[in-house]
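Q: What structure does this chain adopt?
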Amino acid sequence: MKDSQVRIRIPIHHPQEHRQASLAEESSGSIATLLQKNKHMQQHAESTGGLPTIAKTNRRTTALTSTHTVGTMLPGAGTSPGNTYDASRRRGPQPHLRPAAGRAPRWGSRRPWLPFAAMAGVLVLAVAVPALMAWPRQAAQPLPTGSRTAAPAQSNTTAKSEAPVTRLPGVPPIPAVPAAPARSVPVVAEPDVRVYVTSTGRTETLPLEQYIVGVVAAEMPPSFEEEALKAQAIAARTFITRRLLADDTSGAPAGADVTDTVKHQAYISKAKLTREWERSGKSADLAKIRQAVRETKDTIMVYEGKPITASFFSTSNGYTENSEDVWAKAVPYLRSVSSPWDKQLAPRFTETVTLSRQSVFDRLGLSRAAVTASTGGGSMPEIRILSKTEGHRIKKIEVGGLVFTGPEIRNKLGLRSAEFTWKTEGDRIAITTYGYGHGVGMSQWGANGMAKEGHTATQILLHYYTGISFANASRILS
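A:
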């Protein structure tokens, strides 16, 4: 559109006349009054021949070129007929008009500083709020007893079992509400063990866990797997806990709980460990044993809440024994289980010893006459197996006309196992044994084999001791 096609008339008012027109509009009192007057004016115009064409059209789209007198739009305003009013002025806001009753006044030409004051206030708040939030606050202090609101009563058990609450950084702690006095539970100190050392003839007293280190060092090679060493530590701790609980000092000299022999548990004294292990290049082995003991601290095996007889031995013949086949008493957790790892790992799984005929007679208490009668005049005693145990060891055997149990033959002849075979060679007897030990409980070489396959100490013990569970020695002894 070209400039020549637009005609806009801009009325030019005299300052004095403009002021009079403004005062005339203000005299109407309110916007509502002005609208009411306009309506009245429209009705009057229609009765006298109608409004001008410009007034009948939409006031928001009124042509900018249309003009009319203020006197026509606002009768009685007191203005002269020559003072004109441009219709375009009604399109924009008219801040000089007073608001209707009950409304808050808007910003207008009479308060030009209000927008700037509002912006300044917003800026002040934007700076002050983060500063107040970051301001360090002093930790809340517990209220005096007299001014504290009473809290619901809690049981002593709940008060003792509550765990400490983890505090977040910058968050003050909640004041603690004092609970009712709870009955104190005494802390059980680690018990001492009195060990009779046969090499010195003296009794050594030391803490329980330190005693277990000496037992594991004496009972199991440090080259064994870590999980096997842990299983050994738990078995050794269970054995001594049972004796301490029952105040059992059988087989030990006066003033001692146990000896340092296999009669109870083998044990290496602390002085000997320092002298022969730490100073002879075995510090790493000793550290490995101490680690196994530390990781199983206070753990024992129990059956029906009581410490078990945690018997163990070196090497099985492929199976463990039922307790009644060795000690004449059935124990529910000492049952025969398979142990195939020993044959694969134990370097002395089989061993052959050769004994003279006379040595066999003497150890078994056989007379020559009895042997001659049993053999029909021969020089060698007749040996015949009568029965075997569930653990595949000799249960009953006849030698020279007398019947013995497998464990009796093993003890009397000094054999490594109650499973053996024999061969007569002239005046001598060659006896081959399979495995080493009484066969009841945990096989140490079997435990090492299980650990090599990835089994944990817990799994090892659950395999060799049927139906057991685990507990803390400190609670049992308390």
